[in-house]
Amino acid sequence: MTTNFPTYRLTATSLLTPADVARIQALGEPPQRIARYGVIRSEGSSDRSVYFLLEGWVAASMLLWDGERQIVKLHLPGDMLGSTSMCFDSAVDTVTALTPAVVSRIPLERIGALMMTSPAIAVTMLLAAQEERTVLMDRLAAVGRASALARVAALLIELSDRLHRIGHGDDDGFDLALTQEQIGDLLALTPVHVNRMLRQLQELGLVARRGRRVRLIDPSALRRLAAVRPRTVSTDVSWLGRDMQPVAIPPVNGDGPLRR
Amino acid sequence: MTTNFPTYRLTATSLLTPADVARIQALGEPPQRIARYGVIRSEGSSDRSVYFLLEGWVAASMLLWDGERQIVKLHLPGDMLGSTSMCFDSAVDTVTALTPAVVSRIPLERIGALMMTSPAIAVTMLLAAQEERTVLMDRLAAVGRASALARVAALLIELSDRLHRIGHGDDDGFDLALTQEQIGDLLALTPVHVNRMLRQLQELGLVARRGRRVRLIDPSALRRLAAVRPRTVSTDVSWLGRDMQPVAIPPVNGDGPLRR
DNA sequence: CGAGCTGTTGATCTGCATCAAGGTCTGTGG
DNA sequence: CCACAGACCTTGATGCAGATCAACAGCTCG
């Protein structure tokens, strides 16, 4: 039954009604535990589903010709995993738990059927996909043009922001659940160089680390160094023509919002 | 009134009915000519619309802190421009014509209203967005990990494929409407190095160039060098709860390549 | 208590950037 | 028809950020 995953991603815009949110929550199968480094779905797999991440950190990565890998997306609790693959017959990325994690599987047909009955839900997913595309564009620009130091700084800021937004991490910083090698896979750097950059940020007095714990001492200087542009998603959905109200429902025997 | 733009992007899956396609075509304003290097929409602009590209090559780019720019997406005729920005109040990328181009503007409210009445259209856009996300993931992996030579090879292959798919380019190659500087902006290389890489591909006997004209002499070797994985979008939309229509061949009576 | 991750540090190498100087082509105005 | 300017391409010389190679130290967990 309803798995109570974090819904802040769904309610960011006021597009969905509580009923919509409930319908989405009802889609998921019972939560399932994944061990650290457990593979949730492998590149090339024909498993046609998406997953909601309830707990833990997860990476979506692509294997490269020479055995290297590029992490293309870091997922935190509340994120939907694996949705990129829905337009392909086999998965485009490998989804791996970086920490012990809890996910809830959603078979693609279920979410498909739901989207086809509720435009608001389809549009919400579209907006989320566009937002992720922007994240990727920013990362592409960073990997292509920014110095290693700036990239590492940008990552720390991004993580701090995202973690605080979902209530992990306190005033005293956050727990960085990534090895330096994984940071390298994400930013296209070698683990050795990641180490030096972290160390340099420390020497510059911008961050403090103790074990996994990271604290941003001077966030604004860090932000300046990272040269990231702040992005805030729009909450204005008036262009969707609807002051977000319940999609008139009964899909039961009618045809809902027409087709054909 | 109806601008007759290329629709192959819309009909790739059999999700949309001809009526749907017609409704989309009816959205666009009269086509408008853009000069080479004309800016269709700038980063930060609050122009809330998307554009259909009818003719010409267009780049979506982001300006970087130091004045450099990263081209994040190359658009060819039939593509929809600027859709990433729909979840932000101001445009995230600058959309510039690389050749003289023709576009048709679509105010966001119009496409919004249409999506809210037709889930099939919303889902089609979602699938397109996911596909583009994959393209970005591939590019990220390339820029992060592949050698300059491989990146250039990959670009030539991508362009050849895309151009042939839309009927530009013949057996004798295609016209490369990019300066070497623009290729650099796309692949995160300096123009000087792009030049050397193109030259090296020539010396290796993999491609031939005369002016803007490019011909891939040994596409398979090029593909091997580029280490790109072929991606073919799924045409199976049965997960959307709708029987996929052009079932090519009804399996005689038995099994055939069964589905479900 | 030993094995394997993970992090740290130094020495060296290299792919691509940077700097610099022409060369070629195209369009434009005289 | 010519001259000239600006955009684009080409090629060489040199520099440097980050990769690679190599050790070792600390931690964790069987």
Protein architecture, described:
Two copies of one chain form a homodimer. Chain A has 260 residues and is an alpha+beta fold. Chain A is 37% helix and 19% strand. The first copy, chain A, contains eight helices and eleven strands. The first copy, chain A, has a four-stranded antiparallel beta sheet. In chain A, a hairpin with a 5-residue loop joins strand 4 and strand 5. In chain A, helix 3 crosses helix 4 (119-145), helix 5 (148-165) packs across helix 7 and helix 5 packs across helix 8 (219-226). Chain A is globular and about 55 Å long. Chain A starts with 7 loop residues before the first helix and ends in a 34-residue tail after the last helix. Residues 244-260 of chain A have low confidence and may be disordered. The interface between A and B is large, with 66 and 64 residues. Chain B binds a DNA duplex (30 and 30 nucleotides) through helix 7.
List keywords for this structure.
homodimer; 260 residues; alpha+beta; 8 helices; 11 strands; 37% helix; 19% strand; globular; disordered C terminus; DNA-binding
Q: Largest sheet of chain A, described in full?
A: 4 strands, antiparallel
Q: Give me the strand/helix succession of chain A.
A: HHEEEEEEEEHHHEHHEEH
Low-confidence stretches of chain A: 244-260
Shape of chain A: globular
Straight-line N-to-C gap of chain A:
33 Å
Q: Helix/strand/pairing class of chain A, anyone? A: alpha+beta
Give the number of helices of chain A: 8
Major sheet strand order of chain A: 1-8-3-6
The fraction of residues in strands of chain A falls at 15-25%
Fraction of residues in H or I helices of chain A: 25-40%
